Amino acid sequence: MTSVPLDKVSPLGKMRLSHTTVFWIGFCAVMALLIAAPLVLPEFWRRFLTEILIWGLLAMSSDLLIGYTGMISFGHSAFFGLGMYGAAGALIAFGPPNLWLAMLFGLAGAAGAALFVAFFSTRLRDIYFAITTLIFSQIFYVIIFTWTPVTGGENGLIFSRPHLWIPLLYDARFTSTTMHWFVLAVVTGSYLVLRRVTQSPFGMVLQSIRENEARTRAIGYAVERYKMVSVMLSGLFAGLAGVLYAIQNQFAAPDFVYFLTSGDTVIFNVMGGIGTLVGPIVGAGFFQLMRDLLSRMLGDQFPYLIPLGVIFIVMIIFLPQGILGFARRWLNK
Amino acid sequence: MDAVSHFIHALPLDLLIIQTVNGIVAGMILALVASGLTLIFGIMDVVNFAHGELFMLGAYIGVIIVAATGSFWLALIGAALIVALIGAALQIATLRPLIGRDPLNTILATFGVSLVLQNLVLWWFGPTARRIPEPLGASFTLFYLQYPWYRILIAALSAVIIGSFWLFLKYGKFGIWIRATAQDRVMAQAMGIPVPLVYTGVFAIGAAMAAASGVLFAPLVGVSHTMGLDWVLKAFIVVVVGGMGNLGGSIAAAIFISLLESYATIWVDPSQAVIVSFVVLILTLLFRPTGLFVATPK
Amino acid sequence: MSALDFRAPAENSTIAQIDSKTADSAEPLIRVEDIHTYYGKSHILHGVSLTVAPGEVVGLLGRNGVGKSTTLKSIMGLVRPSHGTVMLNGNAVTGLPPHKLARMGIAYVPEDRRIFRLLTVMENLRTGFDRQGVTEDKRQALLDKVFKFFPVLAERRNQAGGTLSGGEQQMLAIARAMMLEPKIILLDEPTEGLMPRMVSQIHTIIDTLHAEGTAILLVEQNVPLTLAASQRIYIMEKGSVRHHCASRDIDANHPIVKQYMGV
Q1: If contacts are CB pairs under 8 Å, which of residues 169-198 in chain C contact chain B?
Q2: Residue B233 CA: distances (Å) to CA of B227, C20, C113
Q3: Mean pLDDT of chain B
Q4: B230 to chain A: nearest residue by CA?
Q5: CATH topology classification for C15-261
Q6: What is this structure's pTM?
Q7: What is the mean pLDDT of residues C233-250?
Q8: CA distance C104 to C22
Q9: For residue B171, is it within any domain?
Q10: How far is B246 from chain C (nearest CA, A)?
């Protein structure tokens, strides 16, 4: 008779927390931190954190396409920019400036762009798709840049911030703290929605498309339709980020529509970890922090994109799962 | 009948001819840039986002060489060689490790390289634009303009470079290696062709072509760190319209689009004339997604 | 050493006794020792071992899917064995990139021919003789030899490879391999899909190559051809070698052949 190892005999065995429990615990902890943050941080860092959240939302929307559907898109600058300009339009054209109207117009603008992109691009193979989304970004850029009477052309638009208006409950100007909470609420809500989507049957089909598009089609799914919905959803949330940015900073500029913004977004995604939704937010945070650090250490003029670009390339080669993937592996050891 | 002849008389014929010449000149340079891009994609399945930056790097190195030696021709050859080496180094460092992985990784990697190169150049040279003086001062009279011979020269040079490359591809030993590798990478290796070397060589050639275009184009516009961005976009449009991996198609598309844009500037502002290329792209995607100049749509 | 050899795999220590032509002490040209190869998670080769002596024609028989092609690919470096070694003239070459092996003297003619369809016949051949150390005279000599073997290729020398018939493409694939002046040619099912007339032509080619001293590792499902053209055979099943003997010791109707090749 061979002896049986002790832990197999012990009735308790090993206690394992379920995945979801761990998630919600982590979620609540992070939320608590983020809610408390503006109360303890100085003004600069408060705004910094808020901006990270906004870029994080943009990166998250991009992750839906890149990480879950497997389509690399450089078009997010268009969605973001049109969300920004849409909100700007509402805030300038309709007085007094109304928060929800701004959101509506911003989302409509982004949806329009998304529809355009979705229609043309979803029939194309990955590489063609990436290039054409980039070109579409530039189309929007040129239109915005040259249509000065409407868009302010090169100089963009400046406008005033609307009140934080929750009907029947609250109506006051934004403080940096309430702004942060508002953005946090929107971003968190978006995250939960996107999470729900990616874990739904729809999300599963998207991932199947990412893994093997031909096979998914062969099974009988209308791949184009799924891709289009994915682009629309992605565009909507990117536009939402644009609206938040407009409200936070009170200006809209064509630079944001230039494809390089999409490039930044993709960098956040890769650095944070694609296909994780949270990863891109981490990536955005990491990028902004590093940029801030580098300019503090080496001066404002230092081209922070050089070391960050190199880190980006190195991560693609050696750390394709991003920071989050690395952390995950490290934690699982 | 009257209306038609009226319309023809109203056409600015001299302007049209001038713009045709301009269009062909710009088209040839664009063709040279796009050839390198389509070559790299056709052989290696790599979308080289950094291509515009290699173009820009070529121009800057040209500036340095001209400043040091005063010779435009030395600049042309020197920039092409140096950027070829840089391109080879980049390919070995960043693209070789990615062979066999999802091709989308190479888009990201080359995008990263383009960012780094752009900012390196900005840091090194500063934001002020540089110039390369024209190698030929003479000009001829084209209607009411003094049209510089130099412009005709660059178009001719581009054609010569593309032509010699085509010959090399068709008849040279390395050319056959490249074509064999493009068709069947595995069997090419089984025949003793050192495929990793072929890939590096192809990338270097593409880079050299981009650099040469940069030097050729530099006297026409200022040399700045953002010049790559505009061209990479146009080059991509050309490559998609011409049919990716199709050398002849890229050349035809380059000239076609440049001509259309040139004509457009008769009536609209140049910064809006770029919309022409966008429209051509959209139409191509809608009706002939494999490429406008591809013989049989698949 | 009876032909009814139900040896367990990898016990091939009696090879040297089988063919008296091969010197016992000479290192074989190719020695494959206990290789395991995977395609992803599929374990295809479960410890394959075999040898080929210089100038020898060795047959590798077995039904579809037993791992014959994979064995050739493992030797050629097209897939990397996870375990075991491949030796060329006593030097370990396991996992070396295929282009190095081609230059070291191993030529590969794959199952689907895989000629370069868009290159002309001449250009296809060039990929083989465009290498270091081939003088203009040598080049001409190689071409003459190959055109003598395959006159139809001479006729079609400027035609694109893709326009040739199946049989002609097979000839081109072999001719292309010959351009490498290899020590051994790995031939994967050369007669598949060919008319009987062509099959005997392939047989003649194999005999001629053997007479010239080129070794051949021949993977085939055509048993009579293999037995006639080779000196030794191995029979594989389910990823390992199950039987090994001299070709003259068995014939196509032998029970062992029926066992491993029959339906």
Answers
A1: 176, 180
A2: 11, 70, 41
A3: 85
A4: A138
A5: Rossmann fold (3.40.50)
A6: 0.83
A7: 89
A8: 22
A9: yes
A10: 14
